[in-house]
Amino acid sequence: MGARDPQFPDVELIESTRTHVRWTLQQYSAPVSFPCNQCQRTVTDNVVAIKTTSSGRKLPHCTDCHRRKVVTTLDAHDHHTASEAAAPELGSAGSEAAEDPEQEVVIQQADPGRPHDVVETESGLQWTFVLRQHHLDHGYCPLPAQTVRRMRTVKVVHLDYGRAFPTVLPATLGKKITGERLRGMRWPRSQVMPGLRITAELDRSRLRLSLTPLERPVHVARRQFLHDYDPRVIARELPAITQPDGKGVTSSLDLLVQETIRKLGYLDEEGRALLPMRNLITNVRSHRGPQDWPGEAVRAAVNGLISRQRLRWATGSCAADGILNYPARPGERTIRLVCYTPFVLPVRKKEQLRVVHLPGASSQHGVAGHLMRIEHLGKQASDEARAAYSEAHRKAGLTGSHKLPKGHTYVRPHKRGGT
Asked: Taking the model in full, what pTM does it have?
């Protein structure tokens, strides 16, 4: 059983993320209904913003009010400018953008562990998600909303993984559907770990979960990855490997700074975590540790880590509603970010990267070319599909045969969504 919140005892608490002093975002296993303490609307959502008062009361807020609160809330301490505590001067080579000392920035990013790239196929539905630690801990598979009714007729769940062609492993499953989650999953932990990108295919009687093999194994944080992965989840969830300084000691503040950026920062496609200095200071100071670190000490720690090339400066921008964007967008207020790369990830050719877009309901986004299994449908790939696969295989610079694998067809890169 997962953690329980006394306010919502009927659902499990999946994840809790601190976003500001006394503010956390709570994600539950199913939508809950509650009156927002700010706007007084009755809201039904599986994400609730909780403000803890000085007396210990926990007040639920909707995500809209939470965003406005965090953007406008000021910390009464440490109203320092960007030039203090040896921070780079504005316009110098070390400072790529201005920092607003009066305003914190909202870090808002779609969860790759949620289903995305949902498409209708001839036999059913297909979607993608990235395996996260809470999937393993709570034994569930995320489902798109349109699959919940269809899952009632599914009898078997298979997990496919293999170096060349997938092998089928039947999983014993005590099936239970809660909200948009298939419960009772027994993930083979010896084969899967957080960060793996999974393709799910659902037909009338079977849910097939597939992993995409890499051309060669990749080692990250002393772990071997044999299949396609999402660098963002790796950066957030794999245990960090401490790098001591020349004396073999790493200060507790240095570790706290790096872990704060890693756990709360914006994550890019290369597995880097980015956080504005103002947000960093606030969250380090709100950490309940044995010592209360002043803002000057945090800035000094950042400068020391930058001089030792553990951190670096980067540039993002802040939208009118206070939300951070990275890379910086034209026309928005630029803001300096502290950048931390927890793990050095191998650089893959752009043709080999599956860039996952997490679109809104009406946004248009690109879908990378990929293989689709059609053997079970009694169909064969067309000559056009075979030729397109051979051409894509050659352009990507991949070794081995350029021939389309038996029992599959090739889906060309295309656009999906939009008006």
From this structure: 0.58
